[in-house]
Design a protein that fits this description.
3 strands; 3-stranded antiparallel beta sheet; mainly alpha; 2 domains; Arc Repressor Mutant, subunit A
């Protein structure tokens, strides 16, 4: 049995940086797909799709099994949870900034309305 490589946050974000790979993950969220099915909406060759799947695999986002000539892929959600946890750490920072911006814009709007009267 091959030891599963621990996905790093860098490899997850690298894999997610490509829109084709994000589309493949979205498709896999609905269930298992073979590489041909993943390639079809993107109008790409099996070889090109396979390269994208390899990047997703190395990030730990996808697992592939071979059944004869078919390569069946399924999503592995745990690296996405790790990325989500990392992003959520910064959520309070951005919410605080956005709340301050909202208050500033409301104050400016109120000030403008006061000057128009």
């Amino acid at each position: 049995m091959v030891a599963q490589r621990q996905a790093t946050l860098d490899s997850v974000f690298h894999a997610l940086a490509d829109p084709t790979r994000r589309a493949m993950l979205r498709s896999l969220a609905a269930g298992e797909r073979n590489i041909g099915e993943l390639a079809a909406p993107c109008k790409m060759s099996f070889a090109a799709a396979s390269k994208h799947v390899k990047v997703l695999e190395s990030a730990g986002l996808v697992r592939r099994r071979v059944e004869g000539r078919r390569h069946i892929c399924r999503i592995e959600p745990s690296p996405l949870a790790t990325a989500d946890k990392w992003l959520r750490f910064y959520e309070h920072f951005w919410n605080k900034r956005l709340d301050a911006l909202e208050a500033l814009l409301k104050a400016e709007d109120e000030d403008r309305k006061g000057h128009l009267k």
